[in-house]
Structures are given as structure tokens and as C-alpha cells.
Amino acid sequence: MLTKSDLIAAFRAVGLAAGDLVLVHSALRTLGPVAGGAEAVIDALLETVGPAGTVAVPTHTWKIVNGAQPVFHQTLSPANVGALTNVFRQRPQALRNLHPTHSVAAIGPRAAEFIACPDMTTPAPASSPYGKLRDWGGKVLIIGPGLECCTFFHGCEQWAGMPWAVSAQPVQVYSIAADGQVTPVLLHHHVVNTWDQYPKLEPCLIAIGALTRGTAGGCDLRLLDAARAAAWLVPHLQHDPSIILPEQSSSSS
After folding, report:
1. pTM over 0.85
2. What is the span of the domain harbouring residue 27?
3. Cys bridge to 170: 54, 105, 186, 240, which one at CB 3.0-4.6 A?
4. CA distances (Å), 69 to each of 45, 82, 190, 213, 215, in order?
5. Res. 15 pLDDT band, cuts 50 70 90
6. pLDDT for 253 beyond 80
7. How does the average pLDDT of the chain come out, rounded?
């Protein structure tokens, strides 16, 4: 059984440090038994980055918010991206933004500024938390899965101007804040799902020093340097979009 101390040591070994801004993707079950469960994992992350650091998690709701069910609620809508995210977002100190499908929650001194998302019309605009990961020298920690879960790469697709990144026609959805205020959003959603192609980027990201790997017990850890990854991936996408397209989409384009 892993302890909080085991996790802190593993997070530090893979490169997470005091003062870091980190967005965490996780599959809690891949860690196996953890003394204290999800709460201990969150505590380990917060202690690793320390009081000057900020920890965030995706609290996405794209499985449940759409044209047929167009309502997102800041406090009531559960995240559909893992058990850890729902424990995290319900912590008293956690702040969650109002993005109807790609909300993010954060804890730390930069949490409010980090989650602020003035443009909610696409999943990951430059002004979103994903853009701030790139611009603020943030990191992405993946606990368990591979790069297929890394939403940051969707942002890179948008910033590179890839035509499949967002739909031409928006859908009308609504975000309801904790205080009941309703914000209408015309949302342009993803067009082509490219997530299953992201793992093939791993050798290149390791080679340029943008990705490090480690373990926590028998669980894989991956730590991505967001700025370095985007600096490599965005121009490569613009030069050769096929590096991230599914084979069928690539051959038909």
C-alpha cells in the first residue's frame, strides 16, 4: 500500500518541485491501494508543490453537457474524467471555473487567476488554463494513463490553427455559477478525436526534454513541460498535421 510519503517521493523524483503550477490527469485505480485514498493523493500533490505552488485538475463535463443537455452547474455538475477530480473539486479551498465542457479546478495562491477563462467558446483557447500552462511555465502530471488523456494537446491543435480542432457551427449551452447566475455560451466543440494518437508523440517529447517518466509503486508517471512541448508541437503540426491525425482522417485530407 502506497503512503502519502511514497507519493511525495515519487512526484519529486519525476520532476515536480516546490512552487510549480501543475495540472494533474489521473486514473486513481492505477495507483493500487493508497493509505488515505484520493484525499491522500491530493495532499501529496499539494505538499510536493508547497504553499507557493498551485495544483489543478480537469473537471470536464463534455460527456454530459451538449446540445441535448445544455446546462453546466459550477458546483453540482460532476466531472466525467476520474474519481480524483470529483474529490478535488469539492474541497473547500478548491476553485472551479465556468467552462461548460472543459472546466478546471485549482487549489493554491494562483488558483483564481489560473482558472479564469474569459473565452469559453472553444475547449482550450489561449486565455484558458491550458494556455496559461504554456505561458506560465506550468507542468502536466499524468498518473496512470498515457498521453492519450492530455487535454493540453487539444490546446496545441487549436493554437496551431488545425481545421479539425473545433467545429464551425456552435451549440448553445449554459453555465450556471454557484450563486445561480446564468451565462449563455455558444460553444464550438471538438470535431476530430485525436487523443488516441497522442502517445506516438512521446519519443519526440522525451528527446527534446519536454517529458520525463517515473513510477509510483507499479503506476506510471509522466511529467510534461507545457511550454517546451507547445514550442515543439505547434510548429510541427502546422508543417505536418498528419503527425497527430488518425490514419483514416490523414489519408482522406
Report:
1. yes
2. 4-252
3. 186
4. 34, 21, 17, 39, 39
5. very high
6. no
7. 95
